[in-house]
């Protein structure tokens, strides 16, 4: 089914009522750089990333996920993917065309199986970025995004069939069955994951730090700034990455991470990890336990943007 291979995750776009407070948090506390503004919309970049922005914040009456964006190599790939999706009945929000966001490019938008808006683009001009120095606690790039879905088997199958994602690992509960699927589009262990939940929503957005020292320094800065720490610091088994989770001012979960595992496509076989084993959630044993409060916050609010295209 897939006619074009996604290359990477570009950005996550959020809408929030208290835009100014959210913007201050993402710049002053989280370490992103404000690069452009346009009447209640702010574009935020990671200093180490060539992407024009990794987060877009839009002022709105209701909190929602506006969209998640991925890259492909060429506009031919954009057209091919749009044609295949439309031909199979996937609802296109926009036809392929020029993008008016920073960096321009060529892309289109569509609804996924759960109603999230997805954007795919090519030929976006790279941003002039820089090397992140030792001990510098700012994000290098956007690492991955995790979504809650009522039926993760269905959502996983849709992303595999239509967008070419490949299953890397699964976390399973002996009592409740599959809890989370980790999916990749490049050698990184996962660019997206789907977690089982009662409603469609954003689970968390993750940002890569240069290394363990920078990750801990960034975590410490957020703690000292009073950001609510949800879970961590620790190190997952699936992905082998470090984690500390915080809540932004609107209750979205954000993660600082580093040292994500890379996959050898020729030799990799997906694992099924038993969630009842403590080392699966945290190899180090340094984080607070995964409890009902952490689980509740990770479910987030039901997404008001399902099958409703963002206004821009």
UniProtKB/TrEMBL annotation:
Recorded superkingdom: Bacteria
Entries under PROSITE patterns matching the protein: VOC (PS51819)
Limits of the VOC domain: 8-123, 141-259
One Pfam entry name: Glyoxalase
InterPro entries: Glyas_Bleomycin-R_OHBP_Dase, Glyas_Fos-R_dOase_dom, GlyoxalaseI/FosfomycinResist, VOC_core
PANTHER family reported for this sequence: GLYOXALASE FAMILY PROTEIN (PTHR21366), METALLOTHIOL TRANSFERASE FOSB (PTHR21366:SF31)
Protein name listed in UniProt: VOC family protein
